[in-house]
From TrEMBL:
<dbReference type="InterPro" id="IPR013595">
    <property type="entry name" value="Pept_S33_TAP-like_C"/>
</dbReference>
<dbReference type="InterPro" id="IPR051601">
    <property type="entry name" value="Serine_prot/Carboxylest_S33"/>
</dbReference>
<dbReference type="Pfam" id="PF08386">
    <property type="entry name" value="Abhydrolase_4"/>
</dbReference>
<dbReference type="InterPro" id="IPR029058">
    <property type="entry name" value="AB_hydrolase_fold"/>
</dbReference>
<protein>
    <submittedName>
        <fullName>Uu.00g038530.m01.CDS01</fullName>
    </submittedName>
</protein>
<feature type="domain" description="AB hydrolase-1">
    <location>
        <begin position="106"/>
        <end position="249"/>
    </location>
</feature>
<dbReference type="GO" id="GO:0016787">
    <property type="term" value="F:hydrolase activity"/>
</dbReference>
<comment type="similarity">
    <text>Belongs to the peptidase S33 family.</text>
</comment>
<feature type="signal peptide">
    <location>
        <begin position="1"/>
        <end position="18"/>
    </location>
</feature>
<dbReference type="InterPro" id="IPR000073">
    <property type="entry name" value="AB_hydrolase_1"/>
</dbReference>
<keyword id="KW-0732">Signal</keyword>
<keyword id="KW-0378">Hydrolase</keyword>
<dbReference type="Pfam" id="PF00561">
    <property type="entry name" value="Abhydrolase_1"/>
</dbReference>
<feature type="domain" description="Peptidase S33 tripeptidyl aminopeptidase-like C-terminal">
    <location>
        <begin position="397"/>
        <end position="498"/>
    </location>
</feature>
Length: 552
């Protein structure tokens, strides 16, 4: 096993030529600390890019707001551009917040990490089809799961019609300037402006892997290094009525909440003081979900119903670090300790107007981007019934999670100026590293294998853990493997599996694993508790409804 220090030494030699262009058009300066608070010495810049790449001679520009977390090992070997998925999530606040430590560690601390909020998100051509107030509240209140009741599907279909019409009326022009193909071009514009070696170094998570696959397909000769982590199936993303493959392993991850619990009862409230089996616990939780369908629970300003509880369960699949807290909440529900639960929910889900509206915008942004990219339209709810049945058969826990998205997309009426419609049979100039977790409830290993099969020279690294993307599984092996790839292009052998260093329901965090690899005094110079992965911020409505319970 190589040591990371050796690697760092080797690589400063290998990349001596990498920055020879030295013609950066980007002026880095301080960031707006109100907008982008960070404990890191971050830098910001504004980069004008063409607003509409299909009209190359037009003068209108779009300003990309860039943020950089500088490499801590100097001199920097160049920039890695990042996207954290959704689609719909702005990237800057995630990068400079909870993720910087991990991403620096996973890239040998030798690269500047750069991100911008992609079109359709944050302040960059935001998708805003509904006015704040009545319209937004109605939208939030209809963010229900497909199986909430036997009349729910019809309601969601009608809501999708309303949404598609509202977006066309309010966003026809800006909406058409939003697409993954355009964001791929924005990535290349950024590379050009950075003036390094003219090559793209890119790391995408979740939907960010579809963006990475797209930019690879459009600009295969510009790819230096690329990690696609938590791979989505881009064939389905662009051309299917739903992302069926995404939910392949969701029920296995869900069951692990309970098997992990009984294996570590001292850190899991659900297993404390009883001899319940994992199957008993899972059964009890499904009973609770069904009961809330008919008997929603009023807890202060919240109404905890089927969609809210199931939404929490769905969101919990992102990161097992949140499972002890989830188990506490479930135990309080089962044992009817409602006052305590109400206090915990109040602390966890602020209901102030701006938080609620910001969350609502991420749902709108997801649809604005995904629905425009997707090229299938379906007439009438009848045409979606087999889709719903297939989703329900695929996963009990996730099957009805994203029906509202698919129904909106089926009726979407804004056509993007450019949509990527080509294949993913690709030979990139340098090979891509795919990463898939053994148990990922959103982007299964099967999708990484699916895409790697047509990316010549690529390799899939498997990480044996639970959760969404490698960021959810603390692993020294992952740090060593991805650092080696970034630093000198070394790919693991196909079939390599990195173990998790954080057993389920343990207290082991990324900070511990990073300290183990790097020592505890060489980092960016501060220690703090790292919250659950923000890639995990839920894009599903029901958790949002919990936040908006008061205003709605
Ligand atoms: C790159 O440009 C900067 C500022 O423009 C300058 O200080 C530096 O010496 C240049 N480096 C090289 C290798 O030319
Ligand atoms: C910083 O951001 C805040 C919040 O978006 C904004 O109100 C303020 O005007 C910004 N300050 C500057 C100097 O741009
Ligand atoms: C754009 O400008 C270039 C150079 O000025 C010109 O050659 C080209 O024909 C123009 N293209 C269009 C579509 O107007
Ligand atoms: C939307 O915009 C396109 C061109 O940008 C235009 O052709 C179309 O008529 C517009 N549709 C509506 C309903 O305004
Ligand atoms: C759990 O099982 C043990 C051994 O069978 C028994 O002694 C104990 O009373 C049980 N505890 C509960 C809470 O049922
Ligand atoms: C949908 O709800 C019905 C009735 O409560 C239940 O029998 C079925 O298992 C549910 N299916 C899914 C996928 O949630
Ligand atoms: C990848 O997935 C797509 C969509 O599910 C499928 O059509 C295609 O055959 C798969 N490709 C491979 C190589 O498995
Ligand atoms: C750093 O590690 C040393 C031993 O390796 C330990 O004694 C010390 O407490 C650690 N410091 C922090 C801040 O974790």
């Amino acid at each position: 096993m190589f040591s990371l220090r050796t690697l760092l030494g080797l690589c400063s030699l290998a990349s001596a030529h990498a920055l020879s262009y030295n013609t950066s058009k980007i002026q880095w300066g301080p960031c707006n600390e109100t907008e982008l608070p960070s404990e890191y010495p971050i830098e910001c810049s504004r980069l004008p890019v063409p607003l509409d790449y299909t009209r190359p001679n037009a003068s209108e520009t779009l300003v990309l707001e860039l943020v950089k977390v500088p490499a801590t090992v100097k001199p920097s070997k160049g920039s890695i551009l990042l996207n954290f998925g959704g689609p719909g999530l702005p990237a800057r606040d995630d990068l400079v917040g909870a993720l910087a430590d991990r991403l620096l560690a996973l890239s040998g601390r030798s690269y500047d990490l750069v991100a911008f909020d992609p079109r359709g998100t944050g302040n960059t051509l935001p998708t805003a089809c509904f006015e704040p107030g009545y319209e937004s509240n109605e939208f939030a209140n209809d963010l229900l799961l497909g199986n909430q009741s036997d009349v729910q599907l019809g309601r969601l279909w009608a809501r999708g019609t309303t949404e598609a019409e509202a977006c066309l009326a309010r966003q026809n022009e800006t909406g058409s300037l939003i697409s993954t193909a355009f964001v791929a071009r924005d990535l290349i514009s950024t590379v050009d402006a950075l003036g390094e070696d003219g090559m793209l170094r890119y790391w995408g998570f979740s939907y960010g892997t579809t963006l990475g696959a797209t930019v690879s397909a459009m600009f295969p000769d510009r790819i230096h290094r690329m990690v696609l982590d938590g791979q989505q199936n881009p064939h389905e993303y662009y051309h299917a009525q739903a992302d069926f493959q995404e939910w392949t392993d969701s029920d296995k991850v869900f069951s692990a909440i309970f098997s992990g619990c009984v294996a570590a009862p001292s850190n899991c409230a659900l297993a404390t003081g009883n001899n319940a089996t994992a199957a008993d616990l899972e059964h009890a939780v499904w009973d609770l979900v069904d009961t809330l369908k008919y008997r929603p629970l009023a807890l202060g300003s919240y109404i905890v119903d089927y969609s809210v509880l199931k939404g929490l369960l769905q969101a919990s699949l992102y990161d097992s670090a949140g499972w002890p807290q989830l188990a506490t909440w479930l135990n309080l529900l089962i044992t009817k300790q409602y006052a305590v639960l109400e206090d915990l929910l109040t602390a966890a889900f602020p209901t102030d107007e701006s938080t609620v509206l910001a969350s609502l915008r991420t749902v709108e942004a997801l649809r604005g981007i995904h629905c425009g990219d997707n090229d299938v339209r379906t007439e009438g709810l009848e045409g979606m019934m087999s889709v719903v049945e297939r989703l329900y058969r695929t996963s009990r826990v996730m099957g009805d999670a994203a029906i509202g998205n698919y129904f909106a997309c089926a009726q979407w009426r804004i056509e993007p100026r450019e949509r990527y419609t080509g294949t993913f049979d690709i030979k990139t100039k340098n090979p891509v590293l795919f990463i898939g977790n053994t148990f990922d409830g959103h982007t299964p290993l099967a999708s990484a294998r699916n895409l790697s099969a047509t990316f010549e020279g690529s390799v899939v690294l498997e990480v044996n853990g639970y959760g969404h993307s490698s960021l959810a599984v603390p692993s020294a092996c992952t740090i060593r493997t991805t650092s080696a790839y970034w630093l000198d292009g070394t790919l693991p052998n196909e079939g390599v599996v990195c173990p998790s260093d954080a057993p389920l329901y343990s207290d082991v965090t990324w900070a511990d694993v990073i300290a183990k690899v790097y020592g505890n005094d060489t980092g960016p110079g501060h220690k703090r508790t790292v919250p659950a992965s923000p890639v995990s911020r839920s894009l599903f409505g029901p958790v949002l409804r919990l936040r908006s319970g008061e205003s709605g």
